[in-house]
# Entry
Amino acid sequence: MTGSVTVREASAADAEAVREVAEAAWYAALGGALDPSTVAAAIEEYYDPEIVAAGIEADAVEFYVAEVDTEPDAEGGETVGFASAERTWADEVELHTVYVHPDRWGGGIASALLDRVETWARGQGVDRIACGVLAGNAVGIGFFEAAGFERHGTSQAEIVGTVCEEYEYEFQV
# Structure
């Protein structure tokens, strides 16, 4: 059952749900581009609940979760996505993550998360939002290009020891 989507600031209590969404999204979006053992190692290293909780609580990082109401009048809902961003330059916000559980792809959840980050970025007075998307992530590439991000180059990203091509995207705010 799909209810309304709420995007809110994350708390440390969301760390395990963030890990679960990340794991499902990484395997679905990158399963054909990265070896499954690389995905498993990345989830272990990058989404350990203690590391996620520390990132959520970091003052420099904005971290949001998307919840879907699954039952009427219930407090909170099911966490189905998350996004994180950080002001890295005077004129730029770096979008670190936007992930949605693959069972919820196409439902506007990633767009709702991106809208929340964009609103925050505008409040920071920056000119642009920048992000990197692994070249093998067709889902991510399609999403960012449909959202108006423009590819401005390529770079190399290291995912737990595996070097991958990454596309650099920017969005003017």
Q: What stands out?
A: The chain has one domain: 5-172. The chain has a mean pLDDT of 95. The longest helix spans residues 15-30.
